[in-house]
């Protein structure tokens, strides 16, 4: 391919089954961790009927996933969003997508790293009365995860799946305990639209956070190169995972509401209401719900690193980012991309640590990382009709390739606006300007890259996963 990369550097093909990537997709969302730290705010905005906000968010995510799936069916690429945008709108757009997504993913995974360290420290303090700095655990877990994903996609995926299975079991046990404890207070008011706080305004307020619950569910789209029959397996896995995670979230929201006797104000007053409810119900077995959060975060870090480092790797392999990032280890893993991804994320998280407790700074980190990622999602929706009309006209479907992508674009505008609207408190008011500055630098880099690599347009998305 020129520039010292005559041989295409491949990942290990046919390593993963549909079941493997379905588990990874679900682990990526980290149901316990995501729900623990988001639901109080969702309930404060939408009231007792917050499960309905989660269902609406799931529908929007399914609209977004449609775009990813439709590209995967015809031109599966490890670069995923980056390659698809680049193939549609050209190499400059591809480079900008690579920068935006790499920055967004690396910053956002700081949320996971901070929570992993903070939650472990909290468990030791609460149950063993031992105080250890959370930074120590964050560094330790990053090293462990880094080693696992370096050693091979099959090994790390098995770990993520096992951790997710354990997490799901603990969540189910916790919910069962809550239902048994509050049997006489069972109510289904949570599913009544009449109880949505402030109507559409309340739903709009809860919507961006509810969407955040599903961030990462489509990440296995970057693992197509290592998946058996990726054009079919990846779409099946991502859709299945989204629907199953939606059911989990809705049940968690309902049982939390039951535990607090449908008092949205009481739920909103707690930082982690599900943990409070489960702790009371589990009694001496309270540790179980805390372990659910720990295994959830650990599995999420494995899943996120596996998928997101591969997108960075692919961008390096194709020349959108420095070629060094396209290096493959002897285990067939994207070693340079893994080191960059985890190393920079950990560094940013530890620097940010001076601004408060890990569980507080995690949400701030996540917000900054989500803005460029949401922008890329939006552009991907716009890319679908353009690509299909130009490259796959015979397969063009008005519903799947025009109506649904447009609906997905419109649906993403609300949560994106919620992240960038003026008048937010510091440091949130600075985030849109940081992202704008990033995009300007990415644009300048793209023009420079194009001058030095004349065939960059031909490289973008040129390595098809199953060829």
Automatic annotation (TrEMBL):
The organism's place on the tree of life at top rank: Bacteria
Task: For this UniProt record, give its keywords in alphabetical order, as a comma-separated list.
Answer: Membrane, Transmembrane, Transmembrane helix
Where in or outside the cell it occurs: the entry states: Membrane
| Membrane-spanning segments | 35-63, 97-120, 132-150, 162-183, 195-215, 236-254, 287-307, 328-353, 359-389, 401-419, 431-448
User: Which InterPro entries does this one have?
Assistant: AA-permease/SLC12A_dom, APC_superfamily
**Iron in keyword set:** no
- The Amino acid permease/ SLC12A domain extends over 21-386
Entry membrane topology: Multi-pass membrane protein
> A single Pfam family, by name?
AA_permease
The record's annotation in PANTHER family points to: AMINO ACID TRANSPORTER-RELATED (PTHR42770), MEMBRANE PROTEIN (PTHR42770:SF7)
What is the protein name stated in its UniProt record?
Answer: Amino acid permease/ SLC12A domain-containing protein
